[in-house]
Amino acid sequence: MTQPYTATTESHKTSMLSRKFGQEIINYFSGSPLNRVSFLRSSTAFLRAALPRSKFLLMRDLEPLAASKTTLAWVGYETVRELVGNPFDTEEEEFLRGYDSRVEIPTLVFLGMNEEGTGGGGGGESFEFEGEGGKYVGGPCFALDVTEKGSLKEECEKVQEEAVKGAEGREFRKVRLDLSLVPSDAAILAQARSLLDWNNRNQFCSACGARTVSVHAGTKRICPPSDKAFQKDPEGPPFERPPCISRKGIHNIAFPRTDPTVIMAIINSTGDKVLLGRQRRWPKDFYSTLAGFCEPAESVEDAVRRETWEESGVRVGRVVIHSTQPWPYPANLMMGAIGEALPGGEEIVLKHDPELEDAQWVEVGRVRNALQESTGTPDVEVEGAIEGQLRLPPSTAIAHQLLLAVVNGFHLAKL
Amino acid sequence: MTQPYTATTESHKTSMLSRKFGQEIINYFSGSPLNRVSFLRSSTAFLRAALPRSKFLLMRDLEPLAASKTTLAWVGYETVRELVGNPFDTEEEEFLRGYDSRVEIPTLVFLGMNEEGTGGGGGGESFEFEGEGGKYVGGPCFALDVTEKGSLKEECEKVQEEAVKGAEGREFRKVRLDLSLVPSDAAILAQARSLLDWNNRNQFCSACGARTVSVHAGTKRICPPSDKAFQKDPEGPPFERPPCISRKGIHNIAFPRTDPTVIMAIINSTGDKVLLGRQRRWPKDFYSTLAGFCEPAESVEDAVRRETWEESGVRVGRVVIHSTQPWPYPANLMMGAIGEALPGGEEIVLKHDPELEDAQWVEVGRVRNALQESTGTPDVEVEGAIEGQLRLPPSTAIAHQLLLAVVNGFHLAKL
């Protein structure tokens, strides 16, 4: 499902960068058809006009309403109106002045504008907004959490029922394991899932412990300076909360979190073998590239060298970044790299870090065969799998793309 | 101060990847001399043995104790013993059983082992630890927050006084703006600063609002299940806290946060101009590459295209990642990319997002001259600066390295 970069003009296909580096790989979960128009999220005028013309992706326990195994389902404003109301009728400043932490607000996130209009990919009714920077035309899309819980339980249940009514096959669908959604819908789902999960897990301020509230259409959470829940005089002003360091200075806690990770195809110093490893919980014969989290203040290149050494004992020299892939479980951004082991640093030692059950140097030819003949996700049983036959991740995984780059001579290519 | 990758063997310098991609750029703030041995952070036996033989980097309000403008200062265990105590005498499990949120604990973070021994870079006494994966030899290094506040105020002040005593020039030094630390110390500082800042800003659980506590030597924070502060019977068991979603399932809130950002040199479709922009607060004539934060579930390549369009109106096709740079203000990881504008997509429109005051297509030759003759940080006044002469960031900034790659023909090179 990974697609080569689709150029919008013919000449781009033979651009200078393409000539040198080959076509760009757009990995699964990236390449969204939506324009995020991030600068419009703080425009109440835009959001107010867009909301009733929008399509909504409903999520229950972080799983989306799907039309089928391969496509998401969308509902119109009429289905969610009672739950959502008109949150953008009030300017943010005014809303914050009246903030009351006792009132539960459904999590509603603006995803972007589908510029291809009304068809497919969740685009709402085509809509035109005249902003300071020009005209923005497209179908606005939101994600909405309809998990039945708390004081919104009944309203959420009603929306869930309404949403599947009369539409055969529509259901809230666990999509994680099969990666069967079409790539454009997978990219939209990844964005929706990451943002709803982040909102859910950041209901309290990590700096002071007080309730937070979503602003900018679900893409920012702040620790409001006052709260009616603690108002002493019902006629007086809202209760002032104690000072919080999240209200001043440079910090990141108001914004969604994305965790950079590294994933790397390591070739040996003679270029004929690739380092593969397997986790204990994976099915027999399933291997992949090594991977791990970037540490604070560590470059991607350093993280590749550290993680490879910690997990396998192999020492890596030169590292080149190949492509990247968002992975919304929970909120990772995978930096795919090709690295080269240092001569004399190729001995495998698994005992530093017990994360891997095994790591091996595998001949490039064997990797090529497995990429063609024997791929799948570790969670899906394969019928008729031959014992001892190497199994590798599917083309939707960046691990597959990195290995493909190596077997295609990424490191040797004369361009 | 950016150094080419220093290969540990001669043959690495002419490795397959190097032949194709040139030498790796190790950007300022990366390339730390410390081995993080991340798997040893959960070994109390290791930490207990290492602590008294360690060197400590003291930080006050996130600024380090420095020996000079270019080097950090380190103190031994004797200087911090009274403040720090013996936190690793107790196994983590036991410590958590007796957790009391009323007791303030100084923030102490294990940074890693200096494998070059005792000299420079903060290495402590050379120390050998026999772990399951083998012998780990080096000088262990910690960072310690000695900001005078709360119940630890007096002890922190004492450590501060003791640390500067008799050592001329030692002071807590604001190092942000001048980037004058030697690269190895800058990388250590970046790690220390990121981790202390994250600990400071995550004293409360973002999922439930309760107090969190540092484990794994400052590299993880958890929301403990019980707390003596709420104990009803002083003889009874510690108070059980309500369930918290941070105690189960896959999530990231226990771990340090790093924010991926993109920074990109965009070339026009004929390859003779580079897109530069300037922020309002920068001095006149100072320009740099465009940059911005990655969004949730967005690849680096997509983020480069989105940010470039939002800030400048320019539409970008192919994107190639060049190198990366940690930036510890507060905790960014900059993904440096070279991108190519689409033919017909080169018109500059600043009005979408008001972030930039100006953006311009600048001829490659003019960029080359400025990189050689007129660089500096935007915060430092330059004496004798000629009005109208383009000024660009210094070689310590990845923006400089990206522009250098372009003027050196990165996108055109025949390898």
TrEMBL record, chains A, B:
Its cofactor is Mg(2+); Zn(2+). GO terms for cellular component: cytosol; peroxisome. It is an enzyme of class 3 (hydrolase). Transmembrane segments: none annotated. Residues 256-384 form the Nudix hydrolase domain. It catalyses: a 5'-end NAD(+)-phospho-ribonucleoside in mRNA + H2O = a 5'-end phospho-adenosine-phospho-ribonucleoside in mRNA + beta-nicotinamide D-ribonucleotide + 2 H(+). CDD domains: NUDIX_NADH_pyrophosphatase_Nudt13. GO terms for biological process: NAD+ catabolic process; NADP+ catabolic process. It comes from the Eukaryota. GO terms for molecular function: metal ion binding; NADH pyrophosphatase activity. Belongs to the Nudix hydrolase family. NudC subfamily. This is NAD(+) diphosphatase. It comes from Tuber melanosporum (strain Mel28) (Perigord black truffle).
